[in-house]
Amino acid sequence: MQVKVIFGEENLTEDVPEDYTIKELLKKLEIPSETVVVKKNEAIVIEEELIQEGDTLEIIKVIFGG
Amino acid sequence: MNTCSKCGNQQIIIQKKHSGQSLCQECFIESINEKVLKDTRKYKLLEKGDKVLMALSGGKDSVVALHILNLLREKNIIDIVAVTIDEGIKGYREKGIEIAKGNTRTLGIEHRVVSFKEYFGRTLDEMMGQDGTRPQGDTEPRHACTYCGVFRRWILNRVAQEEGATKIATGHNLDDETQSILMNYLEGNINNLIRIGPKSESRDERFTVKIKPLREIPEKEIGLYAIAADLNVHLAGCPYVGESFRREIGGFIKELSENHPTIMYSTLRGFDKIKSILKKELTPKGNTGECRRCGEPSAGELCKACSFLEGWE
Ligand SMILES: [Zn+2]
Ligand SMILES: [Zn+2]
């Protein structure tokens, strides 16, 4: 299934399997989960949240440097 | 089904691994506000009537601290004046200043922007020279963060005096604090180690007391708070990436935290327990004099800031 991913200036379309979690998506994109906050369809969600077809996921980096 | 531990809301935004607590957006914001205000009382960071100089970079930590301290300002317990220090870092600081201005305007808080240029005659970029490695005339290469830290501390203390502020508040978080404890311990820098704490305790009254209201809040939760409360924060990294040893330690603690989610809390707790004893035994004796160049309190003839400045003249 396809989902939209917004990360900084980037707008991506990602193909992910059924029952995929935010955590798995971050791993796939090689984004350290402890440095970001993720919104699913404009609402903040936890890493364990399941992704559904057509979701828009915004990944907001909140920890820099360090 | 995972629901908010406080109100039962099904939309949770955090699951705290260290406590097992799950929270919805509203309860999370509320819990951080409560925790910070509780710590403020517990460590006696503020007194009624304090005039607080908030060191506001525009980054998430200082903006969140400003908004939470503003809860006390709204109740007429304290007064706040915010200061943003323009170090002169091209392509980075401008945005932070704009955001700092926006936040203070929204809250109706008095705000000053002061610069390295006006106080020291040069920007941090100019200090670091063309190749950004070290100031001209300095034989010993030091990291930009060293100069930046020394000059920022000098300005904060000076502005606090100019404004008649009784406290200086900074946005230091649990990650910063744990890193500092570990770094100073591992480097054997005990003089710096015993100065770490929620509140500075200088015997010299010419130094305004510094407080860290967010000291027990993990950096990640401050980021989450900023997004959850929809605050306008400057989300960017300084082009002068931090000291490499701090970064190494930070990475090490984050890695440890994966399997030991309470490690930062226990590091802080343990340190706070032994600190008073260390301080009693190890605080250097002797009086603090005055810097002959700027008049700020200083152990030596020149304060750190002035010794850099003189070296470059
Ligand atoms: Zn709730
Ligand atoms: Zn001086």
Describe, in plain words, how this protein is organized in 3D.
The complex is a heterodimer of chains A (66) and B (313). Chain A has 66 residues and is mainly beta. Chain A has a single domain (2-61), classed as Roll (Ubiquitin-like (UB roll)). Chain A contains one helix and five strands. In chain A, β3 and β4 form a beta hairpin. Chain A starts with a strand and ends in a 5-residue tail after the last strand. A five-stranded parallel β-sheet of chain B has the order 5-4-3-6-7, with helices on both faces. A two-stranded antiparallel sheet of chain B has the order 1-2. Chain B has a two-stranded antiparallel sheet with strand order 8-9. The longest helix of chain B has 20 residues, at 144-163. Chain B is an alpha/beta fold and 313 residues long. Chain B contains twelve helices and nine strands. Chain B has one domain (33-284): HUPs (Rossmann fold, 3-Layer(aba) Sandwich), CATH 3.40.50. Chain B is globular and about 65 Å long. The mean pLDDT of chain B is 93. Chains A and B meet through β4 of A and β1, α9 and α10 of B. The site of one zinc ion (ZN) has 8 residues of chain B, from β2 and α1.
